[in-house]
């Protein structure tokens, strides 16, 4: 199962982006992160590094 970024919780710190091994996470123009689900391999690395718990498994 890929992950999803809850936009309301994301503060744009980019911590998740630097740990994603497949570059599935990108920053959007609104300053929040977005997960390309087709690239996510569900490694889970991004979940614990998010300071606001904005990343959830879907
Ligand atoms: S679960 Fe892994 S592959 Fe998927 S977005 Fe997070 S760090 Fe990237
Ligand atoms: S780590 Fe969390 S708060 Fe930081 S950019 Fe990623 S989703 Fe947003």
Task: Spell out the key features of this protein.
2 helices; alpha+beta; two-stranded antiparallel ribbon; single chain; 16% helix; binds iron/sulfur cluster; Alpha-Beta Plaits
Outline the structure in words.
This protein is α+β, with helices and mostly antiparallel strands and 58 residues long. The chain has one domain: Alpha-Beta Plaits, CATH 3.30.70.20. 16% of the residues lie in helices and 21% in strands. The protein contains two helices and four strands; from the N terminus they run βαββαβ. The protein has helices at 15-19, 46-49, and strands at residues 3-5, 25-27, 33-35, 55-57. Strands 1-4 form a two-stranded antiparallel ribbon. A hairpin with a 5-residue loop joins strand 2 and strand 3 (33-35). The longest helix is centred in the N-terminal third of the chain and has 5 residues, at 15-19. The radius of gyration is 10 Å and the shape is globular. The mean pLDDT is 97. It binds iron/sulfur cluster (2 copies). One iron/sulfur cluster binds next to helix 1. Residues 5, 10-16, 33, 49-52, 54-55 line the site of one iron/sulfur cluster (SF4).
């Amino acid at each position: 199962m890929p992950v999803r970024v809850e936009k309301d919780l994301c503060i744009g710190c980019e911590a998740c982006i630097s740990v994603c091994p497949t570059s599935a996470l990108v920053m959007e123009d609104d300053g929040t992160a977005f997960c390309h689900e087709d690239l996510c391999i569900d490694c889970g690395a991004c979940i614990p590094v998010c300071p606001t718990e904005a990343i959830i498994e879907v």
